[in-house]
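Narrative of accomplishments. A recurring question from our advisory board has been how the design workflow behaves on a single, concrete structure rather than in aggregate. To address it, we present the structure tokens for one chain from the evaluation set, followed by the sequence designed for it. No filtering or post-editing was applied between the two.
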């Protein structure tokens, strides 16, 4: 009796989690390499962050919906930061990396030797300058290196997201 109740609970939980995931998403990952090419050429990037790699610590899978969006020459993001911040305004300060409609200067947009796209941009938030390097693969996987002038380097992994086709 206990085993069958456990099985029923597990099945219901799996169905509930699958259903919630399907209902809440209005984007999807890359279906073909041409979507990635268009996104890079137009600098219309919507990257969903899946993993965080703090320097000198264990990687962590994200549990929140973190993203990096670059469109029309501006960046928007709120990324978790785990590391050393060299200047701060006090104890308990939110150390997240936050871009709110920050203008970006694209410094590199090229095709790498392994077929990947290499994109770099800079932006400034208050007194801190950020250099963000993106390595974008044809399947939509993205490696992100975020270097702030006032903090240690953070690495992230994510995937390009595109509006769902109706």
């Amino acid at each position: 009796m206990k085993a069958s109740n456990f099985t029923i609970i597990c099945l219901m939980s799996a169905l509930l989690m699958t259903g919630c995931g399907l209902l809440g998403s209005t984007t999807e990952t890359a279906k073909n390499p041409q979507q990635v090419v268009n996104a890079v050429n137009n600098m219309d990037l919507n990257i969903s962050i899946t993993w965080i790699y703090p320097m000198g610590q264990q990687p962590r899978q994200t549990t929140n919906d973190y993203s990096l969006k670059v469109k029309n020459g501006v960046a928007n993001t709120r990324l978790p930061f785990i590391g050393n911040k060299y200047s701060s305004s006090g104890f308990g300060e939110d150390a997240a990396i936050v871009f709110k409609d920050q203008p970006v200067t694209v410094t590199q947009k090229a095709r790498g030797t392994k077929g990947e796209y290499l994109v770099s941009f800079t932006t400034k938030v208050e007194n801190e300058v950020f250099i963000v390097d993106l390595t974008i693969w044809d399947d939509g996987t993205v490696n992100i290196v975020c270097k702030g002038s006032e903090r240690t380097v953070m690495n992230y992994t994510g995937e390009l997201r595109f509006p769902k086709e109706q």
